[in-house]
Amino acid sequence: MEKYYEINVPAVISEPMDEELVVINLDNGCYYNLNKTATRLWNQLEQGCSVNQAARHISRFYGSEEAPVLVDFTSFVERLIEEGLIRIREGGSTNELPLKEGHGETYQKPGFQKYADMQEMLLLDPIHEVSEAGWPHKGKK
Protein backbone atom coordinates (compact mmCIF):
# COMPACT_ATOMS: atom_id res chain seq x y z
CA MET A 1 0.00 0.00 0.00
CA GLU A 2 1.35 3.37 -1.00
CA LYS A 3 1.68 6.11 1.60
CA TYR A 4 1.00 9.73 0.81
CA TYR A 5 2.15 12.80 2.70
CA GLU A 6 1.31 16.46 2.89
CA ILE A 7 3.06 19.54 4.16
CA ASN A 8 2.16 20.25 7.79
CA VAL A 9 0.41 23.56 7.13
CA PRO A 10 -0.21 26.04 8.68
CA ALA A 11 2.73 25.27 10.98
CA VAL A 12 5.16 24.82 8.08
CA ILE A 13 5.95 27.28 5.31
CA SER A 14 8.52 27.08 2.54
CA GLU A 15 10.21 29.34 0.04
CA PRO A 16 12.40 28.34 -2.92
CA MET A 17 15.88 29.85 -3.07
CA ASP A 18 17.80 29.07 -6.25
CA GLU A 19 17.59 25.29 -6.61
CA GLU A 20 17.10 24.65 -2.91
CA LEU A 21 14.27 25.23 -0.49
CA VAL A 22 14.05 26.97 2.87
CA VAL A 23 11.41 25.45 5.14
CA ILE A 24 10.31 27.03 8.42
CA ASN A 25 8.54 25.15 11.19
CA LEU A 26 6.62 27.83 13.07
CA ASP A 27 5.81 25.40 15.89
CA ASN A 28 9.42 24.85 16.94
CA GLY A 29 11.07 27.96 15.47
CA CYS A 30 13.62 25.98 13.44
CA TYR A 31 14.32 26.45 9.78
CA TYR A 32 15.80 24.03 7.29
CA ASN A 33 17.74 24.31 4.06
CA LEU A 34 16.86 21.37 1.79
CA ASN A 35 19.37 20.27 -0.85
CA LYS A 36 18.39 19.88 -4.53
CA THR A 37 17.26 16.28 -4.27
CA ALA A 38 15.27 16.94 -1.10
CA THR A 39 13.67 19.95 -2.80
CA ARG A 40 12.63 17.81 -5.76
CA LEU A 41 11.17 15.20 -3.40
CA TRP A 42 9.35 17.91 -1.38
CA ASN A 43 7.81 19.31 -4.56
CA GLN A 44 6.63 15.84 -5.65
CA LEU A 45 5.08 15.16 -2.22
CA GLU A 46 3.41 18.57 -2.34
CA GLN A 47 1.78 17.54 -5.64
CA GLY A 48 0.30 14.44 -3.99
CA CYS A 49 2.79 11.82 -5.16
CA SER A 50 3.65 8.86 -2.99
CA VAL A 51 7.27 8.20 -2.03
CA ASN A 52 7.29 5.32 -4.55
CA GLN A 53 6.05 7.57 -7.35
CA ALA A 54 8.56 10.29 -6.46
CA ALA A 55 11.45 7.79 -6.33
CA ARG A 56 10.50 6.37 -9.72
CA HIS A 57 10.18 9.82 -11.26
CA ILE A 58 13.31 11.34 -9.72
CA SER A 59 15.49 8.27 -10.38
CA ARG A 60 14.64 8.70 -14.08
CA PHE A 61 15.64 12.36 -13.81
CA TYR A 62 19.07 11.43 -12.47
CA GLY A 63 19.44 8.25 -14.52
CA SER A 64 19.82 6.30 -11.27
CA GLU A 65 18.58 2.92 -10.11
CA GLU A 66 15.17 3.26 -8.48
CA ALA A 67 15.70 0.90 -5.51
CA PRO A 68 18.47 2.87 -3.72
CA VAL A 69 16.62 6.15 -4.38
CA LEU A 70 13.50 4.67 -2.78
CA VAL A 71 15.51 3.61 0.29
CA ASP A 72 16.96 7.14 0.59
CA PHE A 73 13.56 8.77 0.11
CA THR A 74 11.83 6.53 2.65
CA SER A 75 14.48 7.32 5.26
CA PHE A 76 14.35 11.05 4.48
CA VAL A 77 10.55 11.16 4.73
CA GLU A 78 10.82 9.66 8.23
CA ARG A 79 13.18 12.51 9.17
CA LEU A 80 10.70 15.07 7.78
CA ILE A 81 7.94 13.50 9.90
CA GLU A 82 10.16 13.54 13.02
CA GLU A 83 10.81 17.25 12.46
CA GLY A 84 7.06 17.91 12.10
CA LEU A 85 7.44 19.18 8.53
CA ILE A 86 5.09 16.70 6.83
CA ARG A 87 2.33 14.35 7.92
CA ILE A 88 0.57 11.30 6.49
CA ARG A 89 -2.47 12.04 4.39
CA GLU A 90 -5.28 9.97 3.00
CA GLY A 91 -4.94 9.25 -0.70
CA GLY A 92 -2.89 11.02 -3.28
CA SER A 93 -2.60 11.54 -6.99
CA THR A 94 -0.33 10.90 -9.90
CA ASN A 95 0.36 14.59 -10.50
CA GLU A 96 4.11 14.28 -10.85
CA LEU A 97 5.87 17.54 -11.56
CA PRO A 98 7.60 17.35 -14.91
CA LEU A 99 11.36 17.11 -14.63
CA LYS A 100 13.76 17.38 -17.52
CA GLU A 101 16.58 14.87 -17.55
CA GLY A 102 19.41 15.70 -15.18
CA HIS A 103 21.85 16.82 -17.90
CA GLY A 104 24.91 15.45 -16.15
CA GLU A 105 23.71 16.09 -12.60
CA THR A 106 24.77 13.44 -10.14
CA TYR A 107 22.28 12.02 -7.69
CA GLN A 108 22.91 12.92 -4.06
CA LYS A 109 20.92 11.68 -1.09
CA PRO A 110 18.19 14.06 0.03
CA GLY A 111 19.21 16.03 3.07
CA PHE A 112 18.81 19.24 5.01
CA GLN A 113 20.66 21.54 7.32
CA LYS A 114 18.70 22.44 10.44
CA TYR A 115 19.10 25.86 12.06
CA ALA A 116 17.82 27.02 15.43
CA ASP A 117 19.62 30.37 15.59
CA MET A 118 16.40 32.35 15.02
CA GLN A 119 14.24 30.08 17.16
CA GLU A 120 13.53 32.63 19.89
CA MET A 121 12.60 35.33 17.40
CA LEU A 122 10.34 33.05 15.35
CA LEU A 123 8.55 31.78 18.45
CA LEU A 124 8.01 35.33 19.78
CA ASP A 125 6.37 36.42 16.54
CA PRO A 126 2.68 37.27 17.17
CA ILE A 127 1.69 35.28 14.08
CA HIS A 128 1.66 32.24 16.38
CA GLU A 129 -1.33 33.68 18.21
CA VAL A 130 -3.44 34.05 15.07
CA SER A 131 -6.18 31.65 14.02
CA GLU A 132 -6.34 30.15 10.54
CA ALA A 133 -8.74 33.00 9.64
CA GLY A 134 -5.72 35.32 9.79
CA TRP A 135 -4.94 38.56 11.52
CA PRO A 136 -6.45 39.99 13.75
CA HIS A 137 -8.34 36.85 14.80
CA LYS A 138 -6.75 35.40 17.91
CA GLY A 139 -6.02 31.67 17.92
CA LYS A 140 -7.28 29.19 20.50
CA LYS A 141 -4.90 28.16 23.25
Indicate the topology.
Layout: E1 4-7, E2 12-17, E3 20-25, E4 30-34, H1 36-46, H2 51-62, H3 66-82, E5 86-89, E6 112-115, H4 119-124
Antiparallel strand pairs: 1-5, 2-3, 3-4, 4-6
Helix pairs in contact: 1-2, 2-3
Protein traits:
single chain; 141 residues; alpha+beta; Outer Surface Protein A, domain 3; four-stranded antiparallel β-sheet; two-stranded antiparallel ribbon; 6 strands; 33% helix; globular
Describe the structure.
With 141 residues, the chain is of the alpha+beta class. It has one domain (1-94, 128-141): Outer Surface Protein A, domain 3, CATH 3.90.930. 33% of the residues lie in helices and 21% in strands. Strands 2-3-4-6 form a four-stranded antiparallel beta sheet. Strands 1-5 form a two-stranded antiparallel ribbon. A hairpin with a 4-residue loop joins strand 3 and strand 4. Helix 2 packs across helix 3. The radius of gyration is 16 Å and the shape is globular.
Brief characterization of the structure:
This protein has 141 residues and is α+β, with helices and mostly antiparallel strands. Helices cover 33% and strands 21% of the residues.
